[in-house]
Design a protein that fits this description.
Layout: E1 5-9, H1 21-30, E2 36-40, E3 59-61, H2 70-83, E4 89-92, H3 104-130, E5 135-138, H4 151-158, H5 163-178, H6 193-215
Parallel strand pairs: 1-2, 1-4, 2-3, 4-5
Helix pairs in contact: 2-3, 3-5, 3-6, 5-6
Length: about 220
């Protein structure tokens, strides 16, 4: 039997704030014809009672993971490092959408979870991914389309060269929300924190992919 591939999926638990994409991803991973060790992670660490393919000898683990908490991420990385010594695929699915309760606090929560949490996951897991020449999948959304934004902001998103460029966009958006100037500043109006967070994820993904390609880690843009 071939060596199991190690897959980590965040946001595996269906909640009021997601549509069950993480669960569907996990079920898809477990349907593979090769052995898999799946880490189906969620904030609750709940046993989701997935049925691994007995014929392939696949396994499922249900770790607790809060992607807004650096220590929570580090604990999971350490656990996988000790048990598996590498990761073949990291699928960053965890996220929130609370734009219906639009406020500065919820905008900050959305960006801290979707954008900053995804960035932390990428940074923390990169050594484990590199060791297997694996892949990172950062889930985006049709909401990440740049059409609603001003031409200037669209161009800034398209031309990001560094994580600092991406984070400046985040900071400016939060400042505009604080000042209630989202529309006149070119952000397409209110209730767009989720969409902005996904556009920021697209930006950080491009930056990190280019960096890995230059580094020769085998993880360039695909």
């Amino acid at each position: 039997m071939s060596k199991p591939i190690v897959v980590v999926v965040s946001g595996a638990l269906v909640t009021k704030q997601n549509r069950g994409i993480g669960e569907a991803i996990c079920r898809g991973v477990l349907s593979l014809s090769q052995p898999v060790i799946l880490y189906a992670a969620s904030r609750a660490g709940k046993d989701l009672q997935f049925n691994p393919n007995a014929a392939t000898g696949s396994q499922v683990k249900y770790p607790k993971l809060d992607i807004t908490d650096k220590e929570s991420i580090e604990r999971l990385v350490a656990e996988i490092q000790e048990s598996e010594n590498g990761v073949d695929a990291l699928i960053n699915n965890a996220g929130v959408n609370v734009d219906q309760q639009y406020s500065l606090e919820n905008v900050k929560l959305t960006l801290a979870t979707n954008y900053e949490g995804t960035l932390r996951m990428n940074s923390a897991f990169l050594p484990l991914i590199r060791s297997r020449k694996g892949r990172i999948v950062n889930l985006s959304s049709i909401g990440s389309m740049l059409k609603p934004y001003s031409p200037e902001i669209q161009e800034r998103f398209r031309s990001v060269q560094s994580l600092e460029d991406v984070d400046r966009l985040r900071q400016e958006y939060v400042e505009n929300v604080k000042n209630r100037t989202e529309t006149e500043s070119g952000w397409g109006g209110q209730r767009r924190a989720y969409s902005v967070s996904k556009a920021l994820i697209n930006g950080l993904t491009r930056v990190l992919a280019r960096h890995e390609e230059k580094r020769g880690s085998g993880m360039g843009e695909h």
